[in-house]
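In response to the reviewer comment on reproducibility (Comment 2.3), we provide here a single inverse folding case reported in full, input and output, so that an independent group could reproduce the run without further information from us. The structure tokens appear first.
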């Protein structure tokens, strides 16, 4: 996405068809002229003073406090916060509303991997006309590069998901297994743990598109490249793909991964009783430990993500969302003002207090943030690890401009490697074929 030009964003929007199940293909809502007009800070303040109504579609819980605080500060603005579902459920509802020409919210939460697909459908307002482009250095590279394309800014980052290795210290200490610092060491730790206790696994994995792409990202991979309407998909020879496949295939072949789905009751039980000993995921995870794995408080710790090459310090992002202003919304100026409040000014602190992990560089480096102790992690100052991870994310990663679709068919291809004789390499090859076919059918030039 990072290399796709703004001209391509506008051009590809003409190629959108109703058959796109998750892409919100927007139309000009009669407000195209105002969409190109630069809006000053004074005009935004005047809009806030005059007031009006906003509808915000989001599932992120800390926004409830932000909405309350915002309405107290600007009493003439009324904000209706709607949970229209998480992830794909909301995207489907959003696409349906845009195509119907009614019921479109003013502001919508969009995960980073999905921003490009909605921007290409011309459903998102370019926030650079409000001066949002000046915020580049205020956010960590991973989130910013997911919302900004050349001079265009299609959303403001809400949070970030720099990755870390969460590990059950009690379990590893019991079996005298050192915290792995490389993925080769991780494989050895998986073998040692499962040999010591056949009921225990180093981690769980049944196939997850977001996790897989995050691991490829950390390994230096760039399997998706976009230039204008030309798209390249390389899920076979890309160096990150090769590195990930080499290690993960061994974990699969040796049955060292717990066959447990994330967020299931069985998953929470495994985290609690130590049969799932580590998780490699985003820095937003601690709140889920506290709320869902309360009985294991004090057992878990956080560490840097293992490295693909010993001595390196490279991380990745996993998860995270932004708030976008919908082009078909009725009150764009107020919508942007709320977005900036939530993600660039007073609302940020309210969200951090509620457990959100920041995308803002000032907060990532603040002493109060870094010095925070986590009772769940035995008093560890885990934010030091997370903040360092955020600074180590390569900024050359791109998602597909139809990543929402690609992720939706991941388990039809790569997922087979976890439950059949299909190899991970073959599954990724099938995933590539599906992505190429779909992209070409939608008017892109993929691998041509």
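Designed residues, in position order:
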């Amino acid at each position: 996405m990072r290399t796709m030009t703004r001209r391509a964003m506008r051009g590809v929007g003409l190629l959108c068809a109703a058959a796109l199940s998750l892409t919100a293909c927007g139309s000009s809502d009669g407000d195209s002229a105002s969409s190109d007009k630069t809006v000053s800070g004074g005009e935004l303040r005047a809009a806030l003073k005059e007031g009006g109504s906003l509808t915000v579609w989001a599932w992120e819980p800390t926004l409830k406090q932000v909405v309350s605080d915002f309405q107290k500060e600007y009493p003439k603005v009324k904000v209706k916060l709607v949970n229209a579902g998480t992830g794909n459920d909301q995207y489907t509802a959003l696409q349906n509303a845009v195509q119907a020409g009614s019921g479109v919210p003013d502001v919508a939460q969009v995960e980073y991997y999905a921003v490009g697909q909605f921007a290409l459908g011309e459903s998102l307002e370019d926030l650079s006309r409000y001066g949002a482009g000046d915020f580049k250095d205020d956010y960590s590279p991973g989130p910013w590069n997911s919302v900004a394309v050349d001079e265009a800014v299609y959303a403001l980052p809400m949070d970030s998901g720099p990755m870390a290795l969460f590990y059950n210290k009690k379990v590893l200490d019991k079996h005298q297994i050192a915290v792995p610092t490389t993925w080769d060491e991780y494989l050895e730790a998986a073998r040692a743990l499962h040999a010591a206790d056949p009921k225990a696994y180093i981690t769980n994995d049944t196939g997850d598109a977001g996790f897989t792409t995050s691991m490829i990202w950390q390994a230096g991979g760039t399997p998706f490249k976009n230039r204008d309407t030309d798209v390249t998909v390389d899920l076979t020879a890309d160096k990150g793909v090769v590195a990930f496949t080499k290690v993960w295939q061994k974990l699969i072949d040796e049955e060292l991964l717990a066959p447990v789905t994330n967020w299931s009751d069985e998953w929470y039980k495994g985290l609690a009783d130590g049969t799932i000993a580590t998780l490699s995921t985003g820095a937003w995870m601690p709140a889920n430990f506290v709320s869902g794995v309360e009985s294991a408080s004090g057992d878990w710790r956080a560490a840097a993500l293992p490295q693909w090459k010993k001595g390196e310090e490279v991380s990745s992002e996993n998860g995270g969302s932004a708030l976008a202003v919908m082009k078909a919304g009725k009150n764009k100026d107020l919508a942007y003002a709320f977005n900036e409040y939530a993600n660039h000014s007073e609302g940020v602190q309210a969200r951090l207090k509620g457990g959100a992990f920041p995308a803002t560089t000032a907060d990532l480096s603040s002493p109060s943030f870094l010095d925070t102790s986590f009772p769940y992690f035995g008093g560890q100052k885990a934010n030091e690890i997370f903040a360092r991870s955020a600074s180590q994310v390569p900024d050359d990663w791109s998602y597909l401009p139809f990543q929402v679709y690609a992720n939706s068919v991941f388990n039809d291809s790569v997922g087979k490697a976890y439950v059949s004789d299909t190899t991970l390499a073959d599954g990724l090859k099938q995933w590539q074929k599906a992505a190429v076919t779909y992209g070409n059918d939608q008017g892109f030039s993929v691998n041509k």
